[in-house]
Design brief:
Layout lengths: L9 E5 L4 H12 L3 E6 L2 H14 L7 E5 L5 H15 L4 E4 L14 H29 L2 E6 L12 H21 L4 E6 L4 E2 L1 H8 L3 H7 L5 E2 H13 L4 E2 L3 H12 L1 H21 L1
Parallel strand pairs: 1-2, 1-4, 2-3, 4-5, 5-6, 6-9, 7-8
Helix pairs in contact: 1-2, 1-8, 3-4, 4-5, 7-10, 9-10
């Protein structure tokens, strides 16, 4: 597969109407794969499917648009069944769908917190439950789950998002062990901030404490993360943290978490102090 790209393979991508999901779907198409796109908004999904068709190597490649909310287990099952009926199998499943609304926990409604868990974590579980049996039966396949740097670093304002993304990390690690004996590879990708429409909307409503911690770090492109996702789909490597600096942060958090707490508390204190002076 590494030599031929993904010629003739079938890739299913969630959250495919924009951002990382769309970039990933286009990348698979550019390497010769048939691509099934899952997203909630039918109109945006059709626009995304058109963009993926333009990226395809040949007109023989199939691009399937499947409108479904990943938080709805039945809708996911029906979408996957349709994909299997029309494309025959699923070689790679990429879970990109997600929501993130930065807000202090005590200001967040239970409904919004639950929505993060339903989409960002349960959505991954629903898709996996639908696609994994076929992969196990064939003895091959790859599942790539998109977590986040917020999946290993808890940042002010991301209680719901981090809870879900930490869950994706743990879920993926367990799945790796459970599915490896059946020839199915499971990997998890932890991007930093990514320049997407969703990121722009999220950045506009960040609490000042969250913005202070984020600093002036430059967001990476969705295409950069899509390239990492395709590498993960080919590889036996489990954990992918794009960017040398981010990989260092992952290791540092594991051995010296108190340093992160000290830095974050100091930055939050600076914001609070500035508020008191105004």
């Amino acid at each position: 597969m590494a030599a031929r790209g993904f010629d003739g393979s079938v890739a299913l991508v969630t959250g495919a109407s924009s951002g990382i999901g769309l970039a990933t779907a286009r990348a698979f198409a550019s390497e010769g794969a048939h691509v099934a796109l899952i997203a909630r908004n039918p109109e945006r999904l059709e626009q995304a499917a058109a963009a993926v068709r333009e990226a395809a190597r040949s007109q023989s490649q199939r691009v399937l648009a499947l409108a479904a909310d990943v938080a709805d287990e039945r809708a996911v099952s029906e979408a996957v069944d349709r994909c299997l009926a029309e494309l025959g199998r699923i070689d790679v499943a990429v879970n990109c769908a997600g929501i993130y609304v930065p807000q202090p926990f005590l200001e967040m409604s239970p409904e919004l917190f639950r929505a993060h868990v339903e989409v960002d974590l349960m959505g991954v579980a629903h898709v996996t439950r639908a696609v994994a049996p076929g992969m196990v039966k064939r003895g091959s396949g790859a599942i790539v789950n998109v977590s986040s740097m917020a999946g290993f670093v808890g940042v002010y304002g991301y209680s719901a998002y981090s809870a879900a993304k930490y869950g994706v990390m743990g879920f993926s690690e367990v799945l790796r062990s459970e599915l490896a004996p059946h020839g199915v590879r499971v990997s998890v990708v932890c991007p930093p901030d990514v320049d997407t429409p969703g990121f722009a909307a999220e950045k506009a409503i960040r609490p000042p404490e969250t913005a202070k911690i984020a600093g002036n770090a430059k967001a990476v492109s969705a295409d950069e993360i899509a390239a990492v996702i395709l590498k993960a789909a080919r590889s036996k490597k489990h954990l992918w943290v794009p960017g040398a600096g981010n990989a260092l942060l992952y290791r540092l958090k594991g051995v010296w978490p108190e340093l992160f707490f000290w830095v974050f508390d100091r930055q939050i204190g600076q914001v609070r102090s500035a508020k008191c002076k105004t």
